[in-house]
Design a protein that fits this description.
Length: 206
């Protein structure tokens, strides 16, 4: 292979970001709702998002810089991850606009709230699933403008629209998840295949 060999310290943060976000793909989008100490409800997409632990159940998202979502979870210790679908993509994107902190994206964009069961931040009513979370901790990678802060949240409640649930899990063919790719690229899910994991004892000769 003819590879580019790149050192982050040489190419700089902007170029490194482009390689990270165009190669770590597809990324699911956590549509994170939070409430400030003053009671303003916020919702914003975060694709630096994954499962951190299954037991206890913990998820994480990263704030690049100090955004309203991060400040709200620092103040109140709670957030909700709402599921982002293809059908909701334009609305999800609209919530990435840098509204002033005192303006709620729910109100500015006419997004219907649904009360959460355990935490204070509301769920997004049109989203088919939500994880209600209580902050477990933070890991910050500096205090410069684009420094990342990872927010860990223990999942204290799971809400799923009944029609997308079957046999104790979500039905991928009905969820239509949307993903973030590199730059302004977004993607939908492709063909779904199934593979069973093979125990070592099933291998010939083992
Ligand atoms: C699909 C998508 C994914 C994003 N992922 C992140 C992310 O992981 N971390 C982040 O800080 N910003 C991310 N952003 C940008 C934020 O959503 C944007 O800065 C937003 O205004 C933050 O809102 P807030 O200040 O109300 O928290 C993303 C934007 C889009 C459209």
């Amino acid at each position: 292979m003819n590879r580019l060999e790149l050192e982050p310290t040489e190419i700089g943060p902007a170029a490194t970001y482009s390689w990270l976000t165009s190669l770590i793909v597809p990324r699911p989008i956590a549509w994170v709702s939070t409430t400030s100490a003053d009671g303003v409800d916020n919702v914003a997409p975060h694709s630096f998002f994954t499962v951190s632990s299954e037991d206890p159940p913990v998820v994480q998202f990263t704030s690049v810089g100090r955004k309203d979502s991060l400040r709200n979870v620092e103040e109140t210790g709670e957030f909700v991850v709402n599921f982002a679908t293809e059908e909701l993509a334009d609305l999800v994107n609209a919530t990435a606009t840098d509204y002033p902190r005192e303006i709620s994206e729910f109100d500015a964009l006419g997004i219907l709230r649904e009360p959460s069961v355990v935490v204070r931040p509301p769920r997004v009513a049109v989203s088919p699933a939500a994880f209600e979370c209580v902050v477990e901790g933070f890991r910050s990678f500096g205090d410069h403008a684009r420094a990342g802060t990872v927010v860990f949240g223990r999942v204290v409640h799971i809400a799923v629209e009944e029609s997308v649930a079957r046999e104790g899990r979500a039905r991928i063919e009905l969820l239509h998840p949307i993903a973030r790719l590199g730059g302004a690229e977004w993607g939908a899910i492709g063909e779904i295949s199934r593979r069973r994991r093979v125990p070592y004892t099933d291998l010939a000769g083992a």
